[in-house]
Amino acid sequence: MLLVYRHPVKAFIPLLPIALIVGWSGGAMYLLDIKYTPLTATLGALIIGIGTEFTILIMERFYEERRKGRNSREAIMITNRKTGKAILASAFTTIGGFSALLISDFVILSNFGLMTLINISLALFSSIAVMPAILIILDRFVKIRHVGENELPVK
């Protein structure tokens, strides 16, 4: 991320909500009395991949709106309104696919399906609710070059 963004704060922002999900996932497993298995242990990597995609989409749209001259609050409202729909559709599609594992007679596979559903739901929550707060708080550390009316956005 640091190589792509060349800015330490922008490289760190998408990962912070994902770190929270990994902790919340362990708490959910504890509360549901689900044991760690080789299959549930892979969920960390899976959720990092899916959750990072969601948070990067939110962050990129947010900074696109900021480059247009919008303040942080306006930018995040537009971001959630426009990009939030795509993230919801993606999350619900993934939830629908993995929900088939819930009816498995094999307990390990059923638990994997349940934890995947929980983790995708947490990734969705983290992207839509937690990520905007992080973006607004850390926005002061990222310099934005506003785009003039006749200029193309610079990434």
Q: Could you name the key traits of this structure?
A:
155 residues; mainly alpha; 7 helices
How would you describe the overall organization of this protein?
This protein has seven helices and no strands. The chain starts with a helix and ends in a 17-residue tail after the last helix. The protein is elongated. It is mostly helical. The longest helix is centred in the last third of the chain and has 32 residues, at 107-138. The protein has helices at 2-5, 8-12, 15-31, 38-41, 43-67, 72-98, 107-138. Helix content is 74%, strand content 0%.
SSE diagram, text form:
Layout: H1 2-5, H2 8-12, H3 15-31, H4 38-41, H5 43-67, H6 72-98, H7 107-138
Q: Residue ranges: pLDDT <50 for 5 or more in a row?
A: none
The number of helical runs is: 7
Average pLDDT metric: 86
Estimate what percentage of residues fall within beta strands.
under 5%
Q: In total, how many beta strands?
A: 0
Structural class: mainly alpha
The Rg value, from CA coordinates, equals 18 Å
Q: What's the SSE pattern?
A: HHHHHHH
Helical content stands at over 70%
Shape, please?
elongated
The main sheet comes to: none
| Gap between N and C termini | 14 Å
